[in-house]
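Worked example

This section walks through a single chain of length 229. The input is the sequence exactly as stored; nothing has been trimmed or padded.
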Amino acid sequence: MGAGHGHKLHFHGHSPVHRAPAHLKVLALLAFVVMVVATPKDWYPAYAGYLLVLVAVIAVSRVPVPYLLKRLVVEVPFVVFAVLLPFIATGPRIEVLGLSVSEAGLVSAGALLAKGTLGVLASLTLAATTEPHHLLAGLERLRLPHQLVQIMGFMVRYLDVVTDEMRRMRVARESRGFTARDPRHWPVVARSAGALFIRSYERGERVHLAMVARGYTGVSTTATTRETP
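Given that input, the structure is written out below as tokens.
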């Protein structure tokens, strides 16, 4: 549903959270993340309170919970590291389910999971309730350097193009009978990644030349003109 109205992370809606100014939502996200990160590792009731606040915001936004949970897959690397942390950390050991783990590592792993999940979920909520061009306009309103805003704008605009190019390369490999099943196939995947980088770079050069030919001078007002009042 969201993909038809903008970026794939955005969920189209008309809730108060969707209508809130983008720059205020960015400030709220930054304040929330700083507060979560600054919370001591063993203050678990505070993490529960933060989660309740997030759940309330999600409920008001009317974004389906499964829609957000599917996108939490981006947190997988943090989860893997958190699972390994109790086993590789030093310090006093304790028994948990018959396994000897580091007590300090266990506490740190719990804090990492809690902080990471809260931060990612809050960011996904912002992305789901804010159109990309509104978000860019909000960042400009917060006086983020204009060049950075333009870079992010091009990244959002051409991410789907690069992803589609990657999909076509994968289909071409599989049509020739190739499937990456073990480390012996990694060199082929690496060469494909290199080819994708070169194609993306060349596409960027062509887009830049086309923009310059149309009078582009390094300044764009597209984001600011789309900001909602």
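What to look for: The chain has ten helices and two strands.
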